[in-house]
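Re: benzoic acid structure - here you go.
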Amino acid sequence: MTETISNAIAEPGPDQQEIEARLTRSVVNSFDDCDNPRLKFVMQALVRHAHAFVREVRLSEEEWNTAIEFLTDVGHITDDRRQEFILLSDILGISMQTINVNHETYENATEATVFGPFFVDDAPRIDIGGDIGGGAAGQPCWVEGTVRDTGGQPIPNARIEVWEADDDGFYDVQYDDGRVSGRAHLFSDEKGQFSFWGLTPTPYPIPHDGPVGRLLAATGRSPMRASHLHFMVTAPGMRRLVTHIFVRGDELLTSDTVFGVKESLIKDFVRQEPGSPTPDGRDLGTQSWARAQFDIVLAPTP
Ligand code: BEZ
Ligand code: FE
């Protein structure tokens, strides 16, 4: 279908092509005197690519107006609590591509993925083995691991921020009642080890009641994210790591709407039967629970 439509676009004749190419050259050249070399480079590339796009799809004036209206809607719904532009960048894979470009794989360092809009700065501190749940609904999950450098040396006192959605697919900040749940920070111990109780991640949709949601619906795409647990890990002399871990076996792993999944970040979340002994002796009554291991390797700062 797509092929038929794109094949149906008539190639403009040579005179028309020259008119279009001349305009592109003239706009590119308009930045020649920019005295910031990086800005000049970026703007000229942007113009070349944007013009190439308009010419390739033979953009109609109606389509361009629709696009402007769409971007206007994206702006209108954006405020302190909701950033629809980032969401747009996320579902177009631009956020993820920017991460790929800026966080090239480094030896055996843990890979980065999207930050997402639900991190908050002042999450409560918990001790090792503490609970990030704060009353959020979901299956308890014991998460443990060690933070190391790329040479295998443990990193003590690394700051580990963790945050996740509850069983209903919502982060605490998406509720209006000011609750703080499903988030905390802790520090690795002298052996670089850490552990905490969280919730077994479940799939949830990105906010899709605005223009980005309409775009997903119009293009037959799902708003669902693969189940995940967010981490941000920092330590002196090390590159900040922003990442998630994903649940092996989740059927959304291949269709995550923000393209955040990387094979190395898929972990086993092993279900434990009700009544099976917990690592810290916690009594979970008749509830099943899960456990996952995430060993983190930080790259040095360049
Ligand atoms: C998230 O994982 O929290 C998220 C990431 C990108 C867009 C929306 C949500
Ligand atoms: Fe998330």
